[in-house]
Every structure is written in C-alpha cells, then in structure tokens.
Structure to design on (157 residues):
C-alpha cells in the first residue's frame, strides 16, 4: 500500500469519525431547538386535506439543518487545528451540501416512513414501545449512511 493510499484512508477515517461524533452532538445537543424538533416534519396527508400548507415545517427544518451544520463545521475546524486533514474546500463544500440536502429531506419524516412502509417494515415505523422508536432509529441509521457518503466526498474531491 502506498503512502498516498494510507493518507487517504487516514483522512477518510478521521473525517468519518468527526462527522459521526458531530452528528450526535449537533442533532441531540447544540444543533436543534425544541421548536425545530417539534415543527420540522412535513404535515400529514390528513393535515394537508384539512387545509394545512404542505410547506409547513420547512422553516423549522432548514433552521435546524443550518444550525446542525454550523456545529459540524466548528467540530471539523477544531479537529483540523490539531490534525490538519488533507481535504479540499471543494470536498468540504460538496460533502456538506450532500449532508444538508439529505438531512433536510430525512427530517421531513415522510421519506423515512415511506421507506419503512415500502421495504417490509411498516410496523417498525409505528414502533413506540419499550424505549424504542422505529422512526427515530431508522432516521438515525439513514443519517449515518448519508454521512458516510459525505465523508467519501470530503476526502476524495
């Protein structure tokens, strides 16, 4: 294995670690208010039929996504101060853009529910017992998958 390949692997692993830790800190501590968490989802079909705008919730969702990514950027910058990762501004911009777009879509909630309902797990989408919440667990898993792609984009572009 060449030194270039080892450098790429180290940069990817470090970037993935920062994004994974950053996601938890940003999604659960500093990157979202109670108001944003309660209002970022799309209205239900029943709400829209009753007159709610299908755009309801986007302001809270986008405010959360912006706040979340500020936290992520701060953590990335903090790590870079101590471990100057060999990443480009293009890679960071594309990786963060992918993360923001996928995070906003997933946090509207209906895509996660739709995916569970159409992949044989409709009951998991409704699970809210024994301390488990199927929608939340699926949401977090999908965010992790999107952040894996972000780490690839950041380290390879």
């Amino acid at each position: 294995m060449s030194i270039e390949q080892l450098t790429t692997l180290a940069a990817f692993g470090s970037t993935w670690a920062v994004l994974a830790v950053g996601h938890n800190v940003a999604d659960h501590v500093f990157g979202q208010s109670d108001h944003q968490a309660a209002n970022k989802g799309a209205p239900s079909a029943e709400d829209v039929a009753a007159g709610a705008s299908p755009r309801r919730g986007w302001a809270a969702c986008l405010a959360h996504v912006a706040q979340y990514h500020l936290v992520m950027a701060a953590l990335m910058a903090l790590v870079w101060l101590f471990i100057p990762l060999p990443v480009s501004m293009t890679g960071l911009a594309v990786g963060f853009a992918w993360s923001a777009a996928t995070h906003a879509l997933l946090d509207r909630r209906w895509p996660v529910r739709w995916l569970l309902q159409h992949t044989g797990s409709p009951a998991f989408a409704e699970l809210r017992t024994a301390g488990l919440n199927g929608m939340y667990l699926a949401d977090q898993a999908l965010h992790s998958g999107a952040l894996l792609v972000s780490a690839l984009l950041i380290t390879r572009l």
The two ends are 21 Å apart (CA to CA).
